[in-house]
Structures are given as structure tokens and as C-alpha cells.
Design goal:
Elements (H helix, E strand, L loop, with lengths): L2 H24 L1 E6 L3 E3 L7 E3 L5 E4 H10 L2 E3 L6 H13 L11 H14 L3 H26 L6 H5 L3 H22 L5
């Protein structure tokens, strides 16, 4: 394959993942403020939060609130215990994907980054190892799905946005290759 073709593929993957991450950053999440306070940013008008009154804010704002310790998440965020459970379920389900939170990969990066910033390399390495195993298990299933003549709606529901992006790219490449080489499959 030519270097230019690899560059085009790299760009397709990166642009898709950047778009997905941006969508996740502006998606609303519920927070439970620990104290009364107000804030504003160039993307959000003035927002006032009252202690113990659950509010919805964009994820990028929620992350800052959590880091400052002025709010806590209402919905469960990914942690080591949850990652172990998900990984175990993924191993058990040989042909089906385990349902993941919509922002799973985003949260995964945040956990590793958090441990690294706390200088807890052992914990960061443990999480990365668990994540690598989980990603490999899921990739094997996704690659298998790419070979199926058609994909179901249920399949798409069990993928994260990042996985659906990869699946669509791979499925298109496989279908195009089949069409060109064997004149079967394709669109």
C-alpha cells in the first residue's frame, strides 16, 4: 500500500474519532453540586448551581467540576471495578458485544490520565492492560461482523460511537474489496 493511502486512512480514523469526542464533550451529563456556585464560559451562558440540586451540564464542564471537587457525577462513571466487570462479561460473551456506556473510551482515557497525573503508574498500567484486553476482544468480534453479508440494528446498538465508526470504515473497505476482486457483495 502506498504511504499516501495510509495517510488518507489515518486521517479518516482521526477525523471521525475527533468528531465523536467533540460530540461527547458537549453532551449533557447530570451532576450533583456539593455547594452553591455559578460559572460561565465562552460556550455556556451563566449557569448557577445549587447544592444538592441535580443539574445537567456539558461533559467538559462536568469534568472540571469533578476535578475541583465541587460536584459529583449522578450517573456511574467508569472505574477499575466496573472495567474488570465489563472485561469479564466480554470474555464470557463469545459472539456478542457487551453493552458499554456511550462515552466508554472517553472515560477510559480520563481514568488513565487521572492515575498518571497522580503519579500512580501501577494503577495506570493496570487499567491500560485491562483496557487493551477488552479492546482486543471487542475488535475480534467487530472484525467478524465486518464479514457478515448484512449488519443488524442490534449490532449497532451494542457498539460505542468509536466502534461504529471503525466498523463502518472496515465494512466499506471489505465490501469494496469483495466487489472489485470477486464481483460479489458490495453495495
Amino acid at each position: 500500500m502506498l504511504e499516501a493511502e495510509f495517510s488518507v486512512m489515518d486521517e479518516l480514523v482521526k477525523r471521525g474519532l475527533n468528531r465523536i469526542e467533540t460530540d461527547q464533550l458537549v453532551s449533557l451529563v447530570k451532576v450533583n453540586p456539593k455547594e452553591d456556585f455559578s460559572f460561565a464560559s465562552s460556550l455556556v451562558d451563566q449557569v448557577s448551581l445549587k447544592k444538592s440540586n441535580v443539574a445537567e451540564v456539558p461533559l467538559y464542564v462536568a469534568r472540571l467540576l469533578f476535578e475541583e471537587g465541587v460536584a459529583e457525577p449522578v450517573d456511574e462513571f467508569l472505574d477499575r471495578k466496573k472495567l474488570v466487570r465489563i472485561s469479564s462479561e466480554e470474555r464470557y460473551k463469545e459472539y456478542r458485544l457487551t453493552d458499554l456506556p456511550p462515552s466508554f473510551y472517553f472515560q477510559l482515557k480520563q481514568i488513565v490520565s487521572s492515575y498518571r497525573s497522580q503519579a500512580d503508574e501501577r494503577r495506570a498500567s493496570e487499567i491500560e492492560s485491562l483496557a487493551a484486553e477488552l479492546v482486543d476482544l471487542r475488535l475480534k468480534k467487530i472484525l467478524r461482523y465486518c464479514l457478515l453479508p448484512s449488519s443488524s440494528v442490534d449490532l449497532a446498538k451494542s457498539m460505542t460511537s468509536e466502534e461504529a465508526h471503525l466498523f463502518n470504515l472496515l465494512k466499506h473497505i471489505v465490501d469494496c474489496w469483495k466487489k472489485e476482486v470477486m464481483e460479489v457483495g458490495g453495495k
